[in-house]
Amino acid sequence: MRCLLLLLAGFIGFATASAQTLPVSPPATPPPLPAAPTDWLLRELDNSPILRQHHAGLQLTDVATGETLAAWHADKYFVPASTQKMLTLYAALRILPDSVPALRYVVRGDTLLFRGTADPTFLHGDVPSTRAYALLRRWPGPLAYAETPLADAKLGPGWSWDDYPYYFQPERGSFPIYGHTVRFYYRRPGLGVAVRPAWFNSALRKAERGATSPDHVQRELEANRYTWFPSKTAWVDEVPFRTDRGLLLTLLRDTLKRRDVQPARWRLRPGETPKTYYGLNVDSLLRRCIRVSDNFLAEQTLLLCSAQLGHDTLSIGRTIGYVRQQGWLRALPDSVAWVDGSGLSRQNLTTPRNQVALLLQLYRLVPEPRLFDLLAAGGRQGTLKRAYRDPKELWFWGKTGTLTNNHNLCGYLRTRSGRLLAVSFLNNNHLAPTGVIRREMERVLTLVREQL
């Protein structure tokens, strides 16, 4: 027994000594993973003291490959504000013809029976189309105006009621005239105010001595009565007017210099087929709508689409429903709340990755030169004229969107290396001034331009 124990101890000692003399490999450790090419960007966003407190999200996608390069809160919902107009642009490009349908008409003997298609350019101050005006002005016989029913309220769902006197929230209609606004021109102290259309002169009065206002012109809530306030400098102001059929007929008679514009009903007789009279090139309308973010033109564009689809009663909701039914939004990864054409409503909701998917759809639908010509361009035109500047080359084309406490941007970014990226950068619920948010967004996207 003692011999057996000695043999066992000797074997253990030999094994231990042998183990100590054999080379031992260190345990295998996986090599460190290479950093993602946009990890630096996510850190930049996370560490930004300006973006930290409010609700912000961003997505970057390579247009050529469809590869998502960065997604930061990109699946969260935001109020898009006027970036919602990109959905309006998409619908218009798929539905409207090359020229804007200006009106529908039937000839009965020497009478021209006509009705509106929601074309907003009739005597509009910024995108005026004179074709329909010229037709009505020179028609040799009587004119009979038939109202096209409008299913929607004149002001959209979720719009701020107290914005009623401001240029960016005119009422919607089936036959707009003058953009549904009155323009006031104050040249210099001591002179009165010029009014366009002049018919509204009788509705204007000067404020009482000593009265002040943050606005140059005030309008009563329920009536087309205006008060103007003198100042030491010249100004131009634009104020919406309340609309109805009687006022439209009055303004038509006034501007056409014709008393024979009479109301009528749109009841077609057997064998009658209405014709469409076309006006402005559709890109002229869409360019103005998107570049300067014209809310009225955007709302009327969706109503124009409704008319083009053959709806006897014009409806923005029906246009939106048609776009959904066609499956044109199927590529969007998330549901979208879409209630108006302009983005004035806070009921609109979407995600950054939705907007990027839409940008990719638009890029496939329209040739790049035409698409970029419709958008605001950094340092050159529209709402981006004073941002994203480079005197040597354009590098950002897109659409801004601003409401109180919200500032958003979506569009296309060309990097130094030549890559084209689809970008959505949304900011909601911030208390910082909009300019502070805008400059931080530009700083971040400038880094993207330089490093990707």
From TrEMBL:
<dbReference type="GO" id="GO:0004185">
    <property type="term" value="F:serine-type carboxypeptidase activity"/>
</dbReference>
<dbReference type="InterPro" id="IPR000667">
    <property type="entry name" value="Peptidase_S13"/>
</dbReference>
<dbReference type="GO" id="GO:0006508">
    <property type="term" value="P:proteolysis"/>
</dbReference>
<comment type="similarity">
    <text>Belongs to the peptidase S13 family.</text>
</comment>
<dbReference type="GO" id="GO:0000270">
    <property type="term" value="P:peptidoglycan metabolic process"/>
</dbReference>
<keyword id="KW-0732">Signal</keyword>
<dbReference type="Pfam" id="PF02113">
    <property type="entry name" value="Peptidase_S13"/>
</dbReference>
<protein>
    <submittedName>
        <fullName>Peptidase S13</fullName>
    </submittedName>
</protein>
<feature type="signal peptide">
    <location>
        <begin position="1"/>
        <end position="19"/>
    </location>
</feature>
<keyword id="KW-0378">Hydrolase</keyword>
<dbReference type="InterPro" id="IPR012338">
    <property type="entry name" value="Beta-lactam/transpept-like"/>
</dbReference>
